[in-house]
Every structure is written in C-alpha cells, then in structure tokens.
C-alpha cells in the first residue's frame, strides 16, 4: 500500500472550505460535538484522478489517529486512507458502494467516507484550518 503523494497538482484556496479541519494526509474532518465526519480533500481527489473503488471498515471498528482506516483505488494509484482522529466508527457512507464517483464530484458533502465518535478531542489540535491547509499544500507543491 502507498500513502497519498501528490506531484504537480495545484488548487486554489477556494478548494478548502472553512467549516472543516484538515490533516497533512489530505483528509478532512467536520466536527459536530464529539462526532467527526471524515473524507478526502478536493485536492486529494483531483490528484488521484478518477476514483474506481474505496475499501472502508465496518461500523463499530476503532480507528487510530495517523493510522490507515481504508484504501482508495484511483486511476493513478492505490493509497491508504489515514485517519485524522481516533474513535469508534458509527457510520459508513454506503452510497459509495453504488457510486464511488461522488468522491470526485462532491468530496466535502455527499462524498464523505466515515463518521467517528471521537475518543480524544485534543487530537483536533493536530489538524489544520483552511488557511493552514492551503499553506501546507502550497509548501508541499514547492518541495516537489
């Protein structure tokens, strides 16, 4: 398995929505109390190209921050999905099994992947806001 690595992809700041937090592994988190909805960023889906399949864990699986929670197969690679937070999965987006293309077309809404009951909200401190993520992506691109 490979982690997602991007070369030669640029995104405008418009691709990073303000109501989310972002990981350096290009996943996003939308927080509602102690519940976190997780997906991949628009930047990530664009870099991957057309997505063919996603393999996600079952509900009631515990995920660890910075550990794989699934895989994504796309035109350019097969990559591990790295969890931005720890907790129990309470929902999995079953719509992805019927139409994985919604990750490409709507990564921040209908293309979400899992919902997690967070076990440690202090892990959110390790994540980036939209401006920080935009800066991270720009620096990452300069380094390639």
Structural topology:
Elements (H helix, E strand, L loop, with lengths): L1 E2 L17 E2 L4 E6 L2 E6 L1 H7 L2 E5 L6 E2 L4 E7 L3 E5 L4 E6 L2 H4 L3 H4 L8 E5 L11 H13 L2
Parallel strand pairs: 1-8
Antiparallel strand pairs: 2-3, 3-4, 4-10, 5-7, 6-9, 7-8, 9-10
Entry summary:
The chain has helices at residues 42-48, 95-98, 102-105, 130-142, and strands at 2-3, 21-22, 27-32, 35-40, 51-55, 62-63, 68-74, 78-82, 87-92, 114-118.
Name the average pLDDT. 88
| Tally of individual domains | 1
Residue fraction in strands: 25-35%
Structural class: alpha+beta
> Residue ranges: pLDDT <50 for 5 or more in a row?
1-14
Main sheet: which strands, in order across? Answer: 2-3-4-10-9-6
The string of secondary-structure elements, in order, is: EEEEHEEEEEHHEH
CATH class: Mainly Beta
CATH homologous superfamily title: RNA polymerase II/Efflux pump adaptor protein, barrel-sandwich hybrid domain
Instruction: Report the CATH architecture.
Output: Beta Barrel
Largest sheet composition: 6 strands, antiparallel
Count every helix, treating DSSP H or I runs of 4 or more residues as helices. 4
Description:
The chain is α+β, with helices and mostly antiparallel strands. It has one domain: OB fold (Dihydrolipoamide Acetyltransferase, E2P). The protein has helices spanning 42-48, 95-98, 102-105, 130-142; strands spanning 2-3, 21-22, 27-32, 35-40, 51-55, 62-63, 68-74, 78-82, 87-92, 114-118. The strands form two sheets. It has a six-stranded antiparallel sheet with strand order 2-3-4-10-9-6. Strands 1-8-7-5 form a four-stranded mixed sheet, with no helix packed on it. The longest helix has 13 residues, at 130-142. The radius of gyration is 14 Å and the shape is globular. Residues 1-14 have low confidence and may be disordered.
């Amino acid at each position: 398995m490979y982690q997602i690595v991007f070369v030669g992809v640029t995104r405008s700041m418009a691709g990073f929505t303000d109501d989310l937090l972002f990981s350096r592994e290009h996943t996003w988190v939308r927080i509602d109390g102690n519940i976190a909805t997780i997906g991949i960023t628009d930047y990530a889906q664009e870099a991957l190209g057309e997505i063919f399949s996603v393999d996600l864990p079952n509900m009631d699986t515990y995920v660890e921050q910075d550990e794989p929670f699934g895989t994504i197969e796309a035109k350019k690679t097969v990559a591990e999905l790295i969890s931005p937070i720890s907790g129990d999965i309470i929902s999995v987006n079953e719509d992805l099994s019927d139409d994985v293309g919604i990750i490409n077309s709507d990564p921040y809404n209908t293309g979400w992947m899992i919902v997690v009951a967070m076990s440690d909200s202090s892990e959110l401190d390790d994540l980036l806001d939209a401006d920080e993520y935009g800066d991270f992506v720009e620096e990452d691109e300069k380094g390639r």
